[in-house]
Amino acid sequence: MQQYSGFGLLKHSLTYHENWQRVWSNPTPKKHYDVVIIGGGGHGLATAYYLAKEHGITNIAVIEKGYLGGGNTARNTTIVRSNYLWDEASHLYEHSLKLWEGLAQELNYNLMFSQRGVLNLGHTLQDMRDIERRVNANRLNGIDGEVLTTAQVQEMVPILDCSTNARFPVMGASWQARAGTARHDAVAWGFARAADALGVDLLQQTEVTGIRRKDGAVEGVETNRGFISAGKVACVAAGNSSVIAKMVGMELPLESHPLQAMVSEPLKPILNTVVMSNHVHGYVSQSDKGDLVIGAGIDGYTGYGQRGSFNVVEHTIAAIIEMFPIFSRVRLNRAWGGVVDTCPDACPIISKTHIKGLYFNCGWGTGGFKATPGAGHVFAHTIANDEPHPLAKPFSIDRFSSGELIDEHGAAGVAH
Ligand SMILES: Cc1cc2nc3c(=O)[nH]c(=O)nc-3n(C[C@H](O)[C@H](O)[C@H](O)COP(=O)(O)OP(=O)(O)OC[C@H]3O[C@@H](n4cnc5c(N)ncnc54)[C@H](O)[C@@H]3O)c2cc1C
């Protein structure tokens, strides 16, 4: 794999940047793979990378119906944090955050990972009690977190309306300093490039239309480019997971909803952290390009269209203006939607299934981007060993029959 460096940049400038190696190849599908991964988003690509790197399984195909990262991976608002409430979830997200901290070096790819911190505002006494409880739980789990007063929040974000006249006065906030943002498509590209270098086939414009089984075990996948035989099939299809599950007669406890985000015109640097409010129901950060990156909750109806409804855009903007009246005359540049797979307990499913050789990583809903390296890492272990990684064990699909749910609605909230 060609190493990227400042020296390389200089060298290529001498030939007008015309001789860069292609970042990944475009192979013809083989007849058989040891592992077929359905879905070329960040999670699918990370799974392939860790399978090849840590488990020595390199005869892998990642099958993507569109282009790599074109699902939720490159549509999300890129917030990365690990301050979830329950032990099981916070350990999983913290595992991921630790991987993020060294990932750009490991992949030799600039992921623009920026630990600019995340604030979660509290507007009522109950918000503040919930914040204190969560920060205490995080600290007991070795995860950084602080409870800030209104004055500390105001000092950190001078443009936030912290006045007592505000409709939803800011009473304080939780603060995770190691949290932040990353460049979403770079994450897909970085994992894709590293997986390709380890021998993984990345098959774009290839749609899985069926899963063949024999005697209770998977045999391979039907695609628009023909049948591909596989020892194991791993589904990482986010909003389309239920569609894939239906191919083998399985019903997943998921609902697919549109989730929207939007960006403004680029502004000079004005906001150097991420500000979220579950109560007012919106969040905002400023990208390195200068745009305000804005998001909120899901659209209420279910659907598979990668777009949402106007009323959600309107409510989201109202929430942002409530908190930041200074943004009232900023113009929006673009709005778009993704399809998120929400689970009843706001936690993911990382699991084997009753079909031998068939695995699912899904149900990340509105908050799986932050988990990309961690989820890929533990899912690869689960597939390679046919046994759940200890961090993935609580997220087995069996929890919906055993009742051992992990309710993270409070920490998930609007707070992606
Ligand atoms: C607007 C928005 C904002 C968000 N904000 C955040 C945030 O700030 N922080 C955060 O942590 N998370 C956020 N998320 C959630 C996050 O984006 C997802 O949880 C995460 O990206 C899921 O990654 P993935 O690789 O599993 O899915 P995806 O990137 O969606 O990849 C799944 C892939 O499967 C492919 N596929 C589906 N069916 C088939 C088939 N039959 N054959 C072949 N390929 C198929 C799709 O084309 C897609 O590329 C947000 C999501 C949205 C939509």
Automatic annotation (TrEMBL):
Q: What is its main location?
A: cytoplasm
Enzyme Commission (EC) number = 1.5.3.24
The record's Gene Ontology cellular component field reads: cytoplasm
Q: Name one GO molecular function term.
A: sarcosine oxidase activity
Enzyme class, broadest EC rank? oxidoreductase
Recorded source organism is Colwellia psychrerythraea (strain 34H / ATCC BAA-681)
Task: Please state what the protein is called.
Answer: Sarcosine oxidase subunit beta
Q: Which GO terms describe its biological process?
A: tetrahydrofolate metabolic process
Give the protein's cofactors. Answer: FMN; FAD
